């Protein structure tokens, strides 16, 4: 790898410090590191800044933060084959691959080509109105939901050409298999292996007893007609982007043409992650503020001498 992009959540503890150490480490090995123009300015290295859309042209993206940072990275590279390596400096870290203490040994494996790619299905969403169409892509979910003081919505749902039902509900979640462990799970949806190419339709607080989550083939189109006269309605994408919806809007969700590729350096399976991360809600048994002190002057590849960590032999506590 000769050019690596970085997406970082600088609001999280230690991310700024780790990002700067990581740049030095990679550049010392002949790898150019690029970040978005705004992040480069915030980090004090504007010369490394590029327009955010150009990050997708890197050999891979490093996402420093938590699952939310990785979701943002996935939308940046949407439609390309640029893979993402997630580094967890957040809470749950279900999507991210490595913890902070594993960062530098993991980078050595990455640069040596000792990794595999895991394919994750993306969603393509469109809001259609008589005068315009709004498009989005999501790794987790596309959600239609009412405002804080709105009455329940009536959502008319079609699967392909077939009418399914009109849900009286607070909203509706259309999720990918990756998103089955997120909002959909909290709303009563099933856990779905990311190997499957399906979409999960989960009503939010449905006002009927028979409404249940539904799993449909990925090649189908889900179409939702919004009936909400005078109500405040929102469309949210991965919980990070949002648009106000209008009465009569039609939302379609399909499988995106190009998946997201996640870099995997371990032999973890989806099932081991479910057991580990969801058993106790992902509560961490350590305080990140007590992470090992930085040794920015030592970039040796010998065990125990990685900057900012206690070396490859030190694993952070897990639930």
Automatic annotation (TrEMBL):
InterPro entries (UniProt xref): ATP-NAD_kinase_N, ATP-NAD_kinase_PpnK-typ_C, NAD/diacylglycerol_kinase_sf, NADK
Cofactor(s), names only, from the UniProt record: a divalent metal cation
A GO MF term: NAD binding
Residue ranges, annotated region (Disordered): 282-319
Active-site residues per Swiss-Prot or TrEMBL entry: 67
Catalysed reactions, semicolon-separated: NAD(+) + ATP = ADP + NADP(+) + H(+)
Keyword NAD: yes
Subcellular location: Cytoplasm
Keyword ATP-binding: yes
Gene Ontology terms: cellular component: cytoplasm
E.C. no: 2.7.1.23
GO BP terms, alphabetized: NAD+ metabolic process; NADP+ biosynthetic process
Function comment: Involved in the regulation of the intracellular balance of NAD and NADP, and is a key enzyme in the biosynthesis of NADP. Catalyzes specifically the phosphorylation on 2'-hydroxyl of the adenosine moiety of NAD to yield NADP.
Protein family according to the UniProt entry: Belongs to the NAD kinase family.
Full protein name: NAD kinase
